[in-house]
Input
Amino acid sequence: MELHQLRYFLAVARHHHFSRAAQELRVAQPSVSQQIQKLESELGVRLLDRTRGGVVLTEAGQAFLPRAQHALEQLQEARLELEELSGLRRGHLALGATPSVGAHVLPAALAAFRARHPGIQLNVRQAGSLALLQQVAAGELDVAIAILPFNEPTLEALPLFTDELVLAVPPGHPLEHAPSIPLRALAAEPFVLYQEGYDLREVVLAACRRAGFEPRVALEGGETDSVPRFVAAGLGVAILPRMVAEGMGEPPWVRLSEPRLTRTLGLAWRRDRYQSSASRAFQALFKAFVSERLKPTLLESK
Output
C-alpha cells in the first residue's frame, strides 16, 4: 500500500467521480483508476462500486475511509513536526483563498512570503469559501482566506478585514456618477451574476430579494475577473467586491446604500491540528500585510 493510493482513494470518495478526483489531483484519470484497482487488489476487497453516474463506496470502502483519513493525517502531523526542525529553510504550505482574494490580494502577499522563505513549497487552491472551509476541515489545506463567519466547530477563525460590495455599471450608464444608489433602485436593471458555487452569487441574490425584487439576469456564469469585463462590455450591472472593482480599473463603480453591503474575510485553520512554522509564518505575514497595505485602501472614500 502506497501513500498516493490513499490520497487517490480519498479524492474519489470525496468527489464520487474518477474524473473530478483526477482533476483535483492533477493526474490522468487512468492513473487514478489503476491505483485504486491496485489498492483493492492488495486489500482483497472492493472499495468502490462503479456506476454510470460515478462511484459509490461499498461497505468495505465506508469502513476503510476513516482509517485512510487518519493514516494520512498522522503522516501529515509527523511531516509538519519535522519541518519545524528545518527552521523554515524547507517545508510546505497548502493555502486556500477565495477567487477575488486570490486574484487581487494574494499575489503580492505571496511574493513577500517567498522573499522571506524561498525554501517553502507553496500550493494554492482557489474556490468558494464553503469549499475552502471543507478542505481545511478535511486536512487538505493548512489555512484558508475565506468569508467569515462560518459554522464549522473544528475550525478557528481570525477576522482580518471588511470589504465593501459595490455596483459596477457599464461606461456611460446613467448611474455612473451617482454618489450612491439604494439597492431597490436596481429592480429594472439587467444583472451579470457570478457562476454557481461563488459566495457572492448567493449574497447578491439574497440581498436583492430582501430589497423586494428578483434580479433580472442578463448573463450568469461569470468568474472573478470576467464579470467586470462583461459589465464593461455593456451586458448589465454587477455587484462585486470593491477590491475587484478597484483592481480592474474598469468599469466604473458606485457605492450601494439601503443597505450597504459588506463581507468580512479572515484566516481559518483547524483548531485541533498542529500548525506548522510555515503556516504560522504566513498567517503573521498576511495579517501584517492586510493591516499595512490593504485596510487603508479599503477604508478610503471614493
The CA atoms of residues 89 and 99 lie 29 Å apart. The domain at 1-74 is CATH 1.10.10.10 (Arc Repressor Mutant, subunit A). The longest strand covers residues 155-168.
